[in-house]
C-alpha cells in the first residue's frame, strides 16, 4: 500500500482540526487554532498496519467557497474520516455528506466519527449508538466502521485514525455484507479454495497438522494447543457437526472467518488472503499467476522434475478409488480451486486427446502427457494453473511457479548430425483427405479402429509417450491440422520454431492420394526445412499405382531419403514401430531430411575453419623449424660427422655459435647460476606439460563433439587458442634450446605432431 491519504471532513465546528492537533501533539490544545490545518504526514507507529509506510492527513473546510478544494482532496484520498458532533451535524451525514461523496464518484471507505463524546452522558451514548450509527451503516454500504472520540479527553483519537488506516489496508466491503450479515459470495469462494489447498489429504477436513501448517504459512508462528482448543470450541458452539475427530470442515472454517469480520478483526482474514497471494479485489496477483517466463527462439518449455513430481502427487491424491484413472468426479475435484479446465484442453476435446483406460478414465500416463503438451504449446497456461492448484517451490533461488518448468537447449540447425535436447516433440500429420490421419491418431492412443469415414474439420491433437531404443521415453504430440492446415503451414516462422517433424501420409490403396504430397511441398517450399517421414497407410489393402508424376518410391529416392515410404496399417500390431520411427526422426532430425547437402553458409564456415587452422599450424611449424629445430639438427650433424675436416667442422660450429642458437663454450657457471637455470628449466617443462594436456583435451573434445552444432560454432575459438598455445610454447622452446635442453625440444616436437593430428581429424570430418 505505501502511503495512506486520509481526508478529514464534516460540518464546521465538529472538531476536525482539534482531532488532528490532538493526534499530533498527544494532548488537547486549548488555544484557538487555525480553521484549516496544513497537510500532516506521520510515520508508522506501533499498531500501524505492516504495509503502511506513511500516513498523510488532510484537513478540509465545509464552507461553500472552499467546495472545489474539498472535491479535489476527496478524489485524491484513500479513506474519508467523516466527523459529526451533534444532532444537526449527524442529520447532515445522511442528507448531505454521503450523497455528496457519491455525486463526486468517490468510491473509498468512510469512517464515521462521533466527536465530542465528553459532552454526552453514559446512557445517552449507549442510546445514540443504537439509534444513530447502525441505521446509517445499514443504508450506506461505503461506511466501513464507526467510533466515538473526544479530542478534549484524547479518547479514541489514535483509534480513529487507525481505523482509517485499517479501512484502506484491510477493507471490509469485499468480505462482508453488513445488510445480510453474511460473507459475500466472492469471499466464500476464495476461502473455500484456501481450505481446499490446506486440506493436504483431500478428506474434507483440516486436521491438527494441517491447521498448524496453515497457521505457520499465514501468521508465521506456532499455534498452541490451548488456542486450537478454543478455536474448535468457538466453532462447535455455532456448528456442532463441523468439528469432528477428523478435524474442522469447510463450513466451520467459513464460520470462523465470519466471526473474525463481525468482531472487527477482519485484518486477520486479510492476512490469510494475502498469504495466498490475493489482492484487495479478491483476485490472485498478476505476477503470481503469470510470472515472467520467456522461451528463446528454437527452444521449448518442459516440465521440470519438480513439476512432474507435483502433478504425480496430485494425481495419486485425487484418485480416491485407486483404479489408476481419474473419472469425471475426481477431475472436478482436482480443478476445484481453478476456473475450470484450461481452454486449450476443451478445444482439444480432453480427455479424448490423451491416454485413457478401458473405463474411459485418464491414466497417470495420460495425465502427465496432457500437461507436457500444455507446457510445450502454452507454458503460460501451465504456470497459471500450477498457481491455482497450489504448487509450492522449495528452491530458495526460485520461489515462483517457474521452478516447475525448464527451458530446453536451442536447436538451430537440424541438418547437423546429433540428438536434440528435448523430451517433448511435435509432429504435424498432413495428407490427402481420407488418407487415414485420424485413424493414425486413434492408434497412437491405443484406440480401436472405426471403418466409417468422418472428415476432420477442427484441428485434432493426440499426445502419448513413446519408448525409444535404449529405454528412454519421450512425449510426442501428433497434430492433425484440419481446416487450419493452410494457415498453420503458411506461418513459416512459427512452423519452423515449434514443429519437430512432419509426417506425410497417403492411402496406398487410393491412386489419387499421393499426388497431394508433392503439390503441398511445392506450395510451401519451407517444408523442406523440416525432418520428414513418408507413410503409406492402409497397407492391409491392395496397393495400387499412384496417379502422380513420380511413384512414392521414386519420389523419396529423388529426394535422397534414407528409405522408401513406410507401409503400415493401423490394424497391425507393428503400428507402434511407426511412432518410434517418427519420434526418432524428431530426436535425430539429421536422419530424416529430404536433402543431405550442406547449406552454403555451413560450407563456407567449414572451409573458413579449415583454412584458418591450416594457416595457424603451418605458421607455428615454420617458426619452430627455422628458429629451433633446424639449427639444432645442424649442430648435431656437425658434431657427429667425423669425415669433415677439423677446420670446416670448427667453422660450422663457430657460425652456429655466432647465430646464438646454442650456447657457446664458456667457463663453468657458478653454482647459483646453475641452480637458477635448472629451476627455470623445471618451470618451463611443467608449463609445456600443461600445454600438452590442454592440447590433448582440445583434441578429444574436437573428436568427440565434431558433429555437435555448438562445437561447430566454437571451433574458431578453439583453433585461436591452439595457435596461441603453439606460439607460446615455441617461444619458450627457443629460450630452452639456447640453454641446451634437448629433451624439452623433443617434447615440443611431439606437441607439433599432436597439432597435426588435430588438423587431420578436423579436415577428415569436414571433407
From TrEMBL:
Q: Which UniProt keywords apply?
A: Calcium, GTP-binding, Hydrolase, Membrane, Metal-binding, Mitochondrion, Mitochondrion outer membrane, Nucleotide-binding, Repeat, Transmembrane, Transmembrane helix
Main location (coarse class): membrane
- What Gene Ontology cellular-component terms does the record carry? ERMES complex
Where do transmembrane segments lie in this chain? Answer: 604-625, 744-766
Q: What superkingdom does the record give?
A: Eukaryota
Show the Gene3D superfamilies listed in the entry: EF-hand, P-loop containing nucleotide triphosphate hydrolases
The cellular location(s) given in this protein's UniProt record come to: Endomembrane system; Mitochondrion outer membrane
Give the Miro domain ranges.
1-170, 422-588
- GO BP of this protein: heme transport; mitochondrion inheritance; mitochondrion-endoplasmic reticulum membrane tethering; phospholipid homeostasis; regulation of mitochondrion organization; signal transduction
Q: Which Pfam families match?
A: EF_assoc_1, EF_assoc_2, Ras
Its membrane topology is listed as: Single-pass type IV membrane protein
As for family, the record states: Belongs to the mitochondrial Rho GTPase family.
Q: What does this protein do?
A: Mitochondrial GTPase involved in mitochondrial trafficking. Probably involved in control of anterograde transport of mitochondria and their subcellular distribution.
Protein name from the UniProt record: Mitochondrial Rho GTPase 1
Q: Upper lineage ranks?
A: Eukaryota, Fungi, Dikarya, Ascomycota, Pezizomycotina
Amino acid at each position: 500500500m505505501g502511503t495512506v491519504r486520509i481526508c478529514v471532513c464534516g460540518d464546521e465546528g465538529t472538531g476536525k482540526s482539534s482531532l488532528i492537533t490532538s493526534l499530533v501533539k498527544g494532548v488537547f490544545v486549548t488555544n484557538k487554532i487555525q480553521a484549516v490545518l496544513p497537510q500532516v504526514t506521520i510515520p508508522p507507529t506501533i499498531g500501524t498496519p505492516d504495509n503502511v509506510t506513511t500516513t498523510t492527513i488532510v484537513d478540509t473546510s465545509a464552507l461553500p467557497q472552499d467546495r472545489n478544494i474539498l472535491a479535489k482532496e476527496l478524489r485524491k484520498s484513500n479513506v474519508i474520516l467523516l466527523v459529526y458532533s451533534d444532532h444537526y451535524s449527524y442529520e447532515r451525514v445522511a442528507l448531505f455528506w454521503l450523497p455528496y461523496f457519491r455525486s463526486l464518484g468517490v468510491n473509498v471507505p468512510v469512517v464515521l466519527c462521533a466527536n465530542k463524546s465528553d459532552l454526552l452522558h453514559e446512557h445517552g451514548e449507549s442510546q445514540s449508538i443504537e439509534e444513530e450509527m447502525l441505521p446509517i451503516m445499514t443504508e450506506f454500504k461505503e461506511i466501513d466502521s464507526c467510533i466515538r472520540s473526544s479530542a478534549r479527553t484524547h479518547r479514541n483519537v489514535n483509534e480513529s485514525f487507525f481505523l482509517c488506516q485499517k479501512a484502506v489496508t484491510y477493507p471490509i466491503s469485499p468480505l462482508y455484507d453488513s445488510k445480510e450479515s453474511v460473507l459475500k459470495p466472492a469471499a466464500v469462494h476464495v476461502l473455500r479454495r484456501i481450505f481446499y489447498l490446506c486440506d493436504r489429504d483431500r478428506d474434507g477436513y483440516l486436521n491438527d497438522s494441517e491447521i498448524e501448517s496453515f497457521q505457520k504459512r499465514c501468521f508465521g508462528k506456532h499455534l498452541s494447543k490451548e488456542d486450537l482448543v478454543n478455536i474448535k470450541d468457538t466453532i462447535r458452539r455455532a456448528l456442532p457437526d463441523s468439528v469432528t475427530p477428523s478435524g474442522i470442515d469447510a463450513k466451520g472454517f467459513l464460520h470462523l472467518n465470519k466471526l473474525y469480520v463481525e468482531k472487527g478483526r477482519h485484518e486477520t482474514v486479510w492476512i490469510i488472503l494475502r498469504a495466498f497471494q490475493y489482492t484487495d479485489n479478491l483476485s490472485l496477483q498478476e505476477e503470481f499467476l503469470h510470472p515472467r517466463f520467456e522461451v528463446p527462439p528454437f527452444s521449448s518449455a518442459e516440465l521440470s522434475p519438480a513439476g512432474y513430481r507435483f502433478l504425480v502427487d496430485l494425481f495419486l491424491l485425487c484418485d480416491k478409488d485407486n483404479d489408476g484413472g481419474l473419472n469425471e468426479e475426481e477431475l472436478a475435484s482436482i480443478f476445484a480451486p481453478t476456473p475450470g479446465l484450461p481452454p486449450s484442453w476443451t478445444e482439444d476435446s480432453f480427455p479424448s486427446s490423451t491416454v485413457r483406460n478401458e473405463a474411459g478414465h485418464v491414466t497417470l500416463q495420460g495425465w502427465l502427457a496432457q500437461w507436457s503438451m500444455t507446457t510445450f504449446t502454452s507454458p503460460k497456461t501451465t504456470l497459471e494453473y500450477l498457481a491455482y492448484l497450489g504448487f509450492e517451490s522449495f528452491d530458495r533461488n526460485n520461489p515462483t511457479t517457474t521452478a516447475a518448468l525448464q527451458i530446453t537447449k536451442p536447436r538451430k540447425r537440424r541438418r547437423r548430425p546429433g540428438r536434440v535436447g528435448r523430451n517433448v516433440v511435435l509432429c504435424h500429420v498432413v495428407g490427402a483427405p481420407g488418407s487415414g490421419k485420424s485413424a493414425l491418431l486413434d492408434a497412437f492412443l491405443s484406440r480401436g479402429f472405426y471403418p466409417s469415414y468422418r472428415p476432420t474439420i477442427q484441428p485434432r491433437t493426440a499426445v502419448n509417450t513413446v519408448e525409444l531404443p535404449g529405454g528412454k521415453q519421450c512425449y510426442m504430440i501428433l497434430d492433425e491440422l484440419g481446416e487450419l492446415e493452410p494457415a498453420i503451414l503458411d506461418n513459416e516462422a512459427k512452423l519452423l520454431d515449434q514443429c519437430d517433424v512432419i509426417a506425410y501420409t497417403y492411402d496406398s490403396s487410393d491412386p489419387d492420394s499421393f499426388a497431394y504430397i508433392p503439390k503441398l511441398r511445392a506450395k510451401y517450399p519451407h517444408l523442406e526445412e523440416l525432418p520428414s517421414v513418408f507413410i503409406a497407410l492402409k497397407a492391409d489393402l491392395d496397393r495400387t499405382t499412384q496417379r502422380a508424376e513420380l511413384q512414392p518410391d521414386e519420389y523419396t529416392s529423388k529426394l535422397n531419403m534414407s528409405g522408401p515410404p513406410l507401409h503400415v496399417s493401423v490394424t497391425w500390431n507393428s503400428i507402434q514401430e511407426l511412432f518410434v520411427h517418427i519420434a526418432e526422426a524428431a530426436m535425430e532430425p539429421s536422419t530424416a531430411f529430404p536433402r543431405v547437402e550442406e547449406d552454403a553458409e555451413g560450407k563456407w564456415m567449414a572451409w573458413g575453419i579449415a583454412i584458418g587452422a591450416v594457416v595457424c599450424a603451418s605458421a607455428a611449424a615454420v617458426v619452430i623449424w627455422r628458429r629451433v629445430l633446424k639449427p639444432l639438427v645442424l649442430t648435431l650433424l656437425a658434431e657427429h660427422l667425423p669425415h669433415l675436416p677439423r677446420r670446416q667442422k670448427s667453422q660450422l660450429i663457430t657460425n652456429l655459435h655466432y647465430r646464438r642458437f646454442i650456447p657457446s663454450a664458456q667457463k663453468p657457471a657458478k653454482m647459483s647460476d646453475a641452480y637458477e637455470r635448472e629451476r627455470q628449466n623445471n618451470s618451463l617443462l611443467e608449463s609445456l606439460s600443461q600445454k600438452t594436456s590442454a592440447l590433448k583435451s582440445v583434441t578429444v573434445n574436437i573428436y568427440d563433439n565434431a558433429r555437435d552444432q555448438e562445437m561447430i560454432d566454437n571451433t574458431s575459438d578453439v583453433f585461436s587458442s591452439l595457435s596461441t598455445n603453439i606460439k607460446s610454447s615455441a617461444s619458450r622452446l627457443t629460450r630452452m634450446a639456447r640453454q641446451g635442453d634437448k629433451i624439452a625440444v623433443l617434447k615440443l616436437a611431439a606437441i607439433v605432431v599432436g597439432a597435426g593430428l588435430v588438423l587431420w581429424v578436423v579436415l577428415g570430418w569436414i571433407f
